[in-house]
Write a structure and sequence with these properties.
There is one protein chain. By secondary structure, this protein is α/β, with parallel strands linked by helices. It has one domain (about 5-260): Rossmann fold, CATH 3.40.50.1820. About 40% of the residues lie in helices and about 20% in strands. The protein has an eight-stranded mixed beta sheet, with helices on both faces. Helix 1 links the parallel strand 3 and strand 4. The longest helix has 16 residues, at about 125-140.
Length: about 270
């Protein structure tokens, strides 16, 4: 698929399948390929749109700082250019933060909202962690870096899944769209300055929360905050998995997404 001018940024996107549209929003440092395990089943019923956020993948990089709200505006502009007046929105991690801002600031374009392993605000611990990862990316070789950080992404149970960790290492090392450190730092700034806790009540779309019970990057305190703030929300808790549940437990995630998106009315 081509790059497309969305607002003031050029975004790379892909579209697969037909039917009711879904916009997938990827997390920190990730590209549209983060959703590869979701596209095969969901594109049989829905039009699945994936894209690279600014400063990631094949989308345009920007030298100035920006916010999660800026990236939400990018997503809204992409839907407008694609002439999609309303879509289901699924966001993972930082993409879930972007999805929150999209539902708050552009409520008319969000049909159903699914927030996966995400958070409602940056905090000192998370900022310290991601700042350290930025430094590690400068000092380490790609394989060293990914092996050092994957224990934050996958749980004890996830590490016992044959081939899972090595596949993640291989994908990272051989990624043709590896994100430069400066672009990663700008996304980290946007991620760590995110705050919607005082505006979650403005999210009116039916919302599904999907979290891993053993997630240490976006732990259960965020589940409680999101559930309390978003009145029209339901929770799917996947036991024994961590932040990388999209890949470690793809079948369960896809089943939960299909059920939620296929339901009539509110959850």
């Amino acid at each position: 698929m081509p790059k497309i001018k969305a607002g003031n940024i050029e975004l790379y996107y892909e579209s697969e399948g037909t039917g009711e549209p879904i916009l997938f929003i990827a997390g920190l440092g990730l590209t549209h390929r983060a959703w590869d395990k979701q596209l095969a089943p969901l594109s049989k019923r829905f039009r699945c749109i994936t894209f690279d956020n600014r400063d990631a993948g094949q989308s345009q990089s920007t030298p100035e700082a920006y916010s999660v709200g800026t990236m939400a505006d990018d997503a809204a502009a992409l839907l407008q250019v694609l002439r999609i007046p309303k879509a289901n929105v699924i966001g993972f991690s930082m993409g879930g933060a972007i999805s929150q801002e999209l539902a708050i600031n552009h409520p008319g374009i969000v049909n159903k909202l699914c927030l996966i392993a995400t958070y409602s605000s940056g905090d000192p611990r998370g900022t310290a962690n991601l700042t350290a990862w930025s430094a590690m990316r400068q000092l380490m070789q790609p394989e060293q870096y990914i092996r050092a950080t994957l224990p934050w992404v996958y749980s004890y149970q996830d590490y016992k899944i044959p081939g899972l960790v090595e596949a993640a290492v291989n994908d990272y090392v051989n990624n043709p769209d590896h994100q430069p450190v400066e672009q990663y730092k700008r996304q980290v700034y946007a991620t760590t300055t995110h705050f919607t806790e005082d505006r979650l009540n403005l999210i009116k779309a039916p919302t599904q929360l999907i979290f891993g019970s053993d997630d240490i990057l976006t732990p259960m305190r965020f589940v409680k905050t999101l559930q309390a703030g978003i009145k029209n929300s339901s929770l799917t808790l996947v036991e024994g998995t961590g932040h990388g549940l999209l890949w470690a437990r793809a079948s369960e995630i896809n089943t939960a997404l299909m059920k939620f998106l296929s339901e009539a009315g509110n959850p």
